[in-house]
Amino acid sequence: MTKTTGEFIWKRKHLVGLDELSAEEITYILDTAESFREVSTRSIKKVPALRGKVVGLLFFEDSTRTRMSFELAASRLSADTVLLTSKGSSVTKGETTLDTVRNVEAMGVDIFVIRHSQSGAPHMLAKQVSASIVNAGDGSHEHPTQALLDIFTIRRRLGGLSGLRVAIVGDIAHSRVARSNIIGLRKLGAEVVVVGPPTLVPAAITAMGCEISHSLDDVLAEVDVINMLRIQFERFGSGLFPSVREYSRLYGLNSERMARCRKDVLIMHPGPMNRGVEITSEVADGPNNCILRQVTNGLAIRMAVLYLVSQAAK
Amino acid sequence: MNDILIQNGRVIDPACGTDEIADVAIAKGKIVKVGKVAGKAKEVIDAKGKIVCPGLIDIHVHCREPGHEEEETIATSAAGAVAGGFTTICAMPNTHPPQDNETAIQYVLQRGAEAGLARVLPVGCITKAREGAELAEMGLMLEAGAVAFSDDGDGVASTSVMYRALQYAGMLNVALMQHCQDGDLSGGAMNSGAVAVRLGLRGIASAGEELMLQRDLVLAERTGARYHVQHVSSAWSVELIRQAKARGVRVTAEATPHHLLLTDASCASFDPVYKVNPPLRSATDVEALRAGVADGTIDCLATDHAPQSDEEKELEFALAPFGMISLECAVALYAKALIDTNLLDWPGVIAKMTVNPARVIRADSGALAVGADADITIIDPKKRWTVQAEKFQSKSRNCPYEGWKLKGKPITTIVGGEVKKP
User: Fold this and answer.
1) A5 falls in which pLDDT band (50, 70, 90)?
2) Hey, what CATH topology would domain B56-360 get?
């Protein structure tokens, strides 16, 4: 295939998920992020790309790093930001999400970055408002910028995606990070195996083009990347698995398991980590981890995404 | 002189196996003759090329009154019914307050009579306040005019309550209609499966329907009571009903237009117009359901017309309420699902909208019998039209068929010998 990046024109005003993107579009975002990555190394870490634009950060669900990452990305592009944080759905306050967003839009916002507990909320909004919508995580559905930064990190470390084998371990059923990663990795030619007990790994996930393994030990030797998902505290005692102890024993990544992996295996985690549950400190801080690199790269990815959707909206 | 003479129509009356070109004469609200009718009438309707059949019956409609009159009223339901070719609709009791006593039943009948359009027959609750704990006064509601009982919206979760309800309904010889859904397996927003997994939406497993159905079939068999399965949605449910019928269980069942035409793939747009309970299932389920309708396992076609306001359907998918409307386009939808696919012919479809549902609710209607009330529907089977919900009589617009190009439309609805216009 010829390299078309040079003449590629980005046309999407919204980024609601990786599901609707082509491999070429995903690659274009990654390439754009490469050029923004350099900005963070300057002494004056700012470019005027979004000067005069307003980015509305609407976090209807708790978030620390994603929110800060988007906020910093917007400010490095010289955009102004407004921030709304609201626990739970705005329905409980008597105002619908749509009304909330329409109200903020009326203040003259150009791009909305939306984090919402409901799957599909950004998709619903993209049909109803005229500003750009960037999905910062919707329910258990998608978290496109997290997957893009994961894929970006793999590409930088391992050179490319095609032919790689990636394991995603943990609560796949409730994970938007897992879904976006499966979609993006498959589109770029990587193989994906999701690992966990059947109560956390729905059988129908194979329709997304991945394989399932219920044994972490079975996949250790064959994968290039292991992405360890966080086991969320609200799942404890939910009946989805017997105990944290058993989960940790069966699906936790420790030095003993690391010894059976390929030497150059890449260990990832979207954070925040439960040290000692899904990953031990030795592994999390060990030579194969790129967990903090993911966070750094996230900034470049989010700058690229904000820049691209604003260009398309012109 | 006759009041109305319908001439030269294709008269289809599945109750007595009629399918012939004939005239139908109506006088003083009753059918006086079916066959070759000579002489004049005050009103002559030329039905050449049209189907003339017993008035259509929809045994599953949510009229929303009392409680949610902003979404629908008994009068707008009756108007929508007439527009859709229905002469009789059954009002589900999950209103606010619910139809669980004789006064509430009388209210529905009175509001229906005031509207003066389609007949609106109330279904009463099986349990008080639909709470699933104590039996509602079925005997008194039956005397007041209820035609069947259901806690629709929910199934009766308690096995002992359902057992008693069937024993009691058996004494009254009235059908209990069940919304089969195991409470423990509920709580999702759409069908369990690959689409729900991809969308990150919580699923509603078919097993939830099948488990309650299987329990109820055992209870219906033991009690000998009449049991009706509402809005069957899964392939396995169809098979369970088929086997029960073979054993002689007194079970009847209905299928909706949406479960015969749509799959869970529609939910991929996150548009809550496709959110319905039971949920849209897989293509395999649709196929099995169609086969069940074709072979007689499913006796009735019923819309489960469930109006919801635009405000509520503008919410996020998982937060939006269940329900979709189809009363005013149902005939064409059934034709698309069952006739265009060569599974049934017009007499086959009409049987499931007339005589079969009439038997479930023990109504005298559903046939073109001389001396019976003149409830008649005239259908133009060739009329092509496009669904535009804004033109519906319904107060709501949550119609998943918006913009669909359909064939076949009821053009005249006669109730008690009067041509009804919405």
Assistant:
1) low
2) TIM Barrel (3.20.20)
Helix (H) or strand (E) holding B114: helix B102-115
**Closest CA of chain A from B323, distance in Å:** 18
Name residue, tokens 């219906």.
B220
B residues 251-280 closer than 8 Å to A (CB): 269-270
Instruction: Identify all chain B residues contacting A176, using CB atoms and an 8 Å cutoff.
Output: 200
Confidence of residue A92 (pLDDT cuts 50, 70, 90): low
* The model's pTM: 0.94
Element (H, E) at A133: strand A132-138
Is there a contact between B318 and A176 if contact means CB atoms under 8 Å apart? no
> Inter-chain contact B201–A116, Cβ cutoff 8 Å?
no
Task: Determine the Cα–Cα distance for residues A288 and A142; give it in Å rounded to an integer.
Answer: 27
Residue A86's pLDDT band (boundaries 50, 70, 90)? confident
A123·B270 Cβ contact <8 A: yes
Q: So where are chain B's domains?
A: 2-51+373-419, 56-360
Q: Residues 173-192, chain B: which have Cβ within 8 Å of A?
A: 192
A140-180 pLDDT, tens digit per residue, is 999 999 999 999 999 999 999 999 999 999 999 999 999 99
Q: Please measure the distance between the N-terminal and C-terminal CA atoms of chain A and give it in whole angstroms.
A: 30
Exposure string of A194-227, with b = 16+ CB inside 10 Å and e = fewer, is bbbbeebbbeebeebebeebeebeebbeebbbbb
User: B191, B195, B198: best mutation site toward chain A, by most A Cβ within 10 Å?
Assistant: B198
- Residue A153 near residue A268 (C-beta atoms within 8 A): yes
Subunit contact B316:A205, Cβ cutoff 8 A: no
B317 and A119: CB-CB below 8 Å?
Answer: yes
* Confidence band for A1, pLDDT divided at 50, 70 and 90: very low
Cα angle for residues B394, B399, B400 (degrees, 5° grid): 170
Stretch A38-54: mean pLDDT, rounded?
91
Percent of chain B with pLDDT over 90: 96
pLDDT class for A2, splitting at 50, 70, 90?
A: very low
pLDDT score of B303 more than 60 = yes
Q: Confidence band (pLDDT; 50, 70, 90) for B39?
A: confident
Q: Residue A209: which region, alpha, beta or left (left: phi > 0; alpha: psi -120 to 50)? A: left
Q: Which two tokens stand for residue A3?
A: 């390299």
pLDDT-above-70 percentage for chain A: 95
B316 reaches A (C-beta below 8 A): yes
User: Is A32 within 8 Å of A308 (Cβ atoms)?
Assistant: yes
Question: Which of A120, A205, A207 lies nearest to residue B270, judging by beta carbons?
Answer: A120
The verdict on whether B304 is a catalytic residue reads yes
CATH of B2-51+373-419, one of 2.60.40.10, 1.20.1440.20, 2.30.40.10, 2.115.10.20: 2.30.40.10
Q: Does B321 touch chain A (CB under 8 A)?
A: no
- The token pair that represents B5 in the structure block: 């003479």
Provide DSSP, B306-363. ----HHHHTS-TTTSPP-B--TTTHHHHHIIIIITTTS--HHHHHHTTTHHHHHHTT-
